[in-house]
Write a structure and sequence with these properties.
With 166 residues, the protein is mainly α. 63% of the residues lie in helices and 0% in strands.
């Protein structure tokens, strides 16, 4: 997700064709290099700029971008502008990942935390358990039994109090 909306980028890029990118960067409190990048994207794509039609970027698209940049001898900024990427930093990351780990690293990864594995609902039969597992289960069951007895005693005490108060 981009920090700045498409309409804003188009407006700044159009104004930067007539005004200084330094003045615009001060006015809008954004980096001058970002204004220059938006202008280069706008010069190449015109009003169709900043659409990011390939997003999320597939492995094939990333590889196509990197090979085109290498074959044409383009810079990061020009290649990013030509393919209408949100920033040239994305392309730099792809280039670094591809150089270190190859095409497999360009594949998109799932985001977020992995799902928790559900514990098996059926306990192991006691014949298959080790002695330590049996002792642990025995200790757990004794603790569970003690809690239930305490709960039952509290419930009975509450009933007795309710009967005594008319």
């Amino acid at each position: 997700m981009s920090k700045h909306q498409r309409v804003f980028k188009l407006e700044v890029a159009k104004r930067a064709l007539q005004e200084s990118s330094t003045n615009l960067s001060r006015e809008y409190n954004i980096a001058r290099s970002l204004v220059k990048y938006w202008v280069s994207v706008y010069r190449i794509h015109g009003l169709d700029s900043f659409r990011h039609s390939e997003y999320p970027y597939s492995c094939q698209f990333k590889l196509k971008v990197l090979t085109t940049m290498h074959e044409q001898g383009w810079s990061l900024n020009h290649t990013s502008a030509y393919f209408d990427l949100s920033t040239s930093g994305i392309l730099f990351q792809w280039q670094k990942l591809y150089a270190h780990e190859g095409i497999s690293r360009l594949k998109p990864k799932k985001k977020g935390r992995p799902r928790m594995k559900q514990p098996p609902s059926e306990p192991k039969p006691s014949e298959q358990m080790t002695e330590k597992e049996l002792r642990d289960e025995l200790e757990y069951l004794r603790a569970e039994n003690a809690v239930l007895k305490k709960f039952e005693a509290l419930a009975q005490a509450k009933k007795k109090l309710a009967k005594k108060k008319p």
